[in-house]
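okkk here we go again. third time trying to get the flavin-adenine dinucleotide bound version out, last two times i messed up the smiles copy paste (missing a bracket lol). double checked this time i swear
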Amino acid sequence: MPTTPRIAIVGAGPGGLVCARILQQHGLPVTVFEREAGPDSRSQGGTLDIHQDTGQVALRAAGLFDQFLALSRPDGQEWRLYDRHATLIRHDQAGEDDLSRPEIDRGRLRTLLLDSLAPGTVRWNHSVQAAGPLPDGNARLHHHDRAVEDFDLVIGADGAWSRVRPALSDAHPSYAGVTMVEAHFDDVDHRHPGIAHLVGGGTMSAKAGCRSLVLQRNSNGHVRAYVTFRGPQDWHAGLDLDDTEAVRARLLALYRGWDESLLDILRDNEGGFLNRPMFVLPVPHRWQRVPGITLLGDAAHLMPPAGIGANLALLDGADLAHAVIGHPTIDQALDAYESVMLPRALDNARTAQQMLTTLMPDTDTDSEAAVFPDPLWPAGGLPQAAPAHTG
Ligand SMILES: Cc1cc2nc3c(=O)[nH]c(=O)nc-3n(C[C@H](O)[C@H](O)[C@H](O)COP(=O)(O)OP(=O)(O)OC[C@H]3O[C@@H](n4cnc5c(N)ncnc54)[C@H](O)[C@@H]3O)c2cc1C
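finally!!
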């Protein structure tokens, strides 16, 4: 290991940022390249539940746990499950001191991580085009302006459509057969009491066959809806996705027969609908070690959103940072990191895949018997995450 290795992280998501934070805490300089123009250039999305045995382990390692707790919403762990007649099937409430998976708005988590870094660590508006190994064991980054820059270690933390991944593997994300259409509600407690009633303080899901309607409460009375169904990626064929009323009509047709209170999720949202087809990497996804380059988070193991992706990205970031800090060479650090991260990702990807198949069965049946073939969607996502390894 050079006395001061040159380390580049591509992507300022949760995984890349926590990795940068821990490296800096241990005196290792790092540069994060992020394609977004700045910290506020885009809304960071909905709410994340941060699990005790994964994401929280990483935030503790980064010395940010108390700040995280102060920003989190333990009451957001409340969970309601309805059938399509809006009958409440299950209702889990968070115990008073239950900190097993408090919710936090993604934007708040990102700001917490960004603020913990030395000024200038993140180079915004900097889209990396590719990465590749060099004969001397280092790695080269190809920047958007055609400049190149060499590092001792390049970490691909650049999410689903990683530009670093091709240096390690030929895998491409493919459509998982399920689409989520996102919708938004503001100030629900005053403007949408029906929605507020359905969602309570946390998350609710109404489900029948291969369709569900999911609501998640974020901070400040904001609720995000995920209209989730199995179907072809071009389910919207013939529609202009910017034509909100046409999309609404198509969705209402898809959910015909559902209770009127649930259909309000499709009728009353503010703004338009965002089409979010679900993509996944093949399982297993692994690679032969390449000197000086590795991946973490979605770049390494994009899987169905089963409530674990951000948690694993955080844990990967912490594990990788500790591996770099604790080993004499980058090669040894990557051996140690990948030997833990890859099997853990495989276990979780298999479970997430299984969950998707169970919850969104391939047959389009609405029979009540098919509604809950399984002990429901486990609160907090995966029943059992792989053991945490960090430090
Ligand atoms: C609808 C939905 C709900 C989800 N809910 C949950 C949940 O409740 N709990 C949970 O744990 N997970 C959840 N997930 C999964 C979670 O969002 C991801 O697993 C997590 O964000 C992955 O983190 P990451 O750091 O690997 O990558 P990302 O968060 O994707 O961050 C990647 C970063 O890299 C940047 N970037 C990309 N390409 C480049 C480039 N070429 N150059 C420079 N920068 C680049 C991006 O702009 C981005 O900032 C959900 C996912 C979806 C789709």
